[in-house]
Amino acid sequence: MALIVQKYGGTSVATPDKVIEAARQIRAAREDGNQVVVVVSAMGGATDELLRLASAVTARPDPRELDALLCTGEAASAGLLSLALNHQGVASRSFSGPEAGIRTDHRHGRATIVEVDPRRLREELARGAVPVVAGFQGESIATGARTTLGRGGSDTTGVALAAALGADHCEIVTDVAGVYTADPRTVAGARRHTSLLYEEMAELAVSGAKVLASDSVDYARTHGVDLKVRSNSAAIGPQTWVGDGRRAAGAAAGEFWTPAGRLRGIAGVAGRSGLVRCVLRRITSDHVLRLLGELVERETEVELRRYGNLGTEDAGDIALTLPEDSVEEMRELLADTDRGIRLDEAHWTSNLARLSVVGLGIGRQPHAPLRLLEALRSVGAARTDLHVTSNRLSVLTGRSDLAAATQIVHDTFLSEPVTPLVHPADADHTRPAWPLAAEPGRLDVAMPALAAAE
Fold first, then answer.
1. Which of the residue ranges 39-48, 155-164, 284-293, 374-383 would you say has the lowest mean pLDDT?
2. Helix (H) and strand (E) counts for the chain?
3. 421 within some domain
């Protein structure tokens, strides 16, 4: 008997019919002999509606009370799904995040899980029931107040519970049939991976791929939780495994795979729009350190794209990229002369997007940045602030250019995907392994376009 944690996203429980279908799939997993713990997001659109209601009564909602309000979205989903399961003859009980033992730090709106006590969930499993947990939320270990985990928090809840319970794996049930090389709704020829390494999935997530939240991937990698991404339309069918490359559920005994000297393929192309670039001219190194310190203290989401000078004077230029919703906070910080951040010039550019190409070792391939820039030039896309790391190339482009840029870059880097060769490992190789049918880097044929992932 396997213990599985299943996380259902907002579009997977968006309507009563979808809630009933989710309950049917959970019942089928139980009938196959598995123990199941379920984590749910708020019904599709519910969180946005709660935010709209909050903004209707105040322009500056208190963070503690806003978290208390937002937690009701996931609580409603958990209650509905538990009702549906009981109606289908499966004993079930719903839990809030705190009731499920999720303890966090004190930061409202972007709390971090610091402790999980799954005893109440184990008690439910022992009596043969299916616990349904409201994702995205927890309880401050310092104050006892309800907290929310930020974007993708339900994914992180599912992974954290899987780690705490020692589950066989965590299923992320969404409205796409796995992880693709690009968004299949908008990019022709996007292909589904059968498996990815944690490192690849983490880079895709921070680059803008929406199927998994970056925090959940980091948590899974840290705690060794295998992830299975599948569609909510069917429990059996196309899927993507994400893990450390050593194992996945269903591996036959004695089956192993090892890369045999060839480069891994490109994991994918992802983009993020709604960005603003701020270039600060003639800022001293002392002021740079003070500014970056303030941004860290405020936990402002910002990316340092460039910093340097000519080496003949202390003052230099710094380029920062930040989301549109962080611009006001940044402007307030720069305008506060009492903090000693005095600037000769500040230049802002809005309506930007970041396009990234992800692949293990891509930054060590000398031709890769050139191919990226040539592809963007071929469609007349704006390009600036090229950033190269070992596993990712990223460049800023115009928001209006992102769709065409993503397509041409995907065509350029994935026209001939490179996959690892697979051969039997040594007989004394005793580590568990992923099945040969799902080796990391292996791509399936093009799939029909599907709706957006949660």
1. 284-293
2. 11, 20
3. no
Task: Output phi, psi for 353, to 5 deg.
Answer: -140, 155
Q: Is the dihedral of CA 177, 180, 184, 189 positive or negative?
A: negative
Q: Same domain, yes or no, for 162 and 279? A: no
Q: What pLDDT is attached to residue 430? A: 36
Q: Are 116 and 157 in contact (CB under 8 A)?
A: no
Distance in angstroms (rounded) separating the CA atoms of residues 188 and 203: 22
- What's the CATH code of the domain at 392? 3.30.2130.10
Which range of residues forms the domain containing residue 78? Answer: 3-174
Distance between CA atoms of residues 288 and 432, nearest Å: 49
Same domain, 156 and 294: no
For the chain, what's the residue count? 454
Q: What is the CATH number of the domain that holds 30?
A: 3.40.1160.10
Name the β-bridge partners of 394: 356, 387
How many domains, the chain? 2
pLDDT of amino acid 52 = 95
Structure tokens at 378: 């071929």
- Residue-wise pLDDT for 80-115, tens only, equals 999 999 999 999 999 999 999 999 999 999 999 999
Strand partners, 3: 35
**Domain closes at, from 174, 201, 233:** 174
What pLDDT, in 10s, does the model give residues 204-225?
999 999 889 999 999 999 999 9
Burial code (b: 16+ CB inside 10 Å, e: under 16) for 306-336 equals beeeeeeeebbbbbbbbeeebeeebeeebee
